[in-house]
Amino acid sequence: MSDMQKAISLVIATFCKYSGREGDPTTLTKAELKELLQNELGELVGKAPDKAAVDRIFSDLDSNQDNLVDFAEFGRMFICLTTMCHEFFTKKK
Questions:
Q1: Which band of pLDDT confidence, cut at 50, 70 and 90, is reported for residue 81?
Q2: Which 8-state DSSP code applies to residue 92?
Q3: Cα-based torsion angle of the residue sequence 25, 63, 48, 21 in order, rounded to the nearest 10 degrees
Q4: Per-residue pLDDT for 46 more than 70?
Q5: How distant is the alpha carbon of residue 80 from its chain centre?
């Protein structure tokens, strides 16, 4: 498996690790998203994002306003974070 395929598989596996703990296995609730952010992206978003920050992130991601974040909505966040990291590291050169 190529590195890119491994990366894709890891993103999917990480989403699935947290989704469904409170119901639908294809979506994240606000609590599930908070846990994912803290445990998996803590260095990027802060180890303990406050409630207002989580609420804002969740609201921004939940584009269809169903109070759940599906994989497509999560994927947009992941792409944004990846883009920000890429820009940060390429400007350091």
A1: confident
A2: T
A3: -10
A4: no
A5: 10
CB-based burial of residue 41 (10 Å sphere; 0-12 exposed, 13-18 middle, 19+ buried)?
middle
C-alpha span between 19 and 65 (Å, rounded): 17
Band (49; pLDDT cuts 50, 70, 90): low
Residue-by-residue DSSP string for 11-76: HHHHHHHHTTTTS-TTEE-HHHHHHHHHHHSHHHH-SS--HHHHHHHHHHH-TT-SSSEEHHHHHH
Residue 9: what residue type?
S
Q: 3 pLDDT exceeds 90?
A: yes
Residue 53: Cβ within 10 Å count: 14
SS3 90: helix
Gap between the Cα atoms of 43 and 65, Å rounded: 28
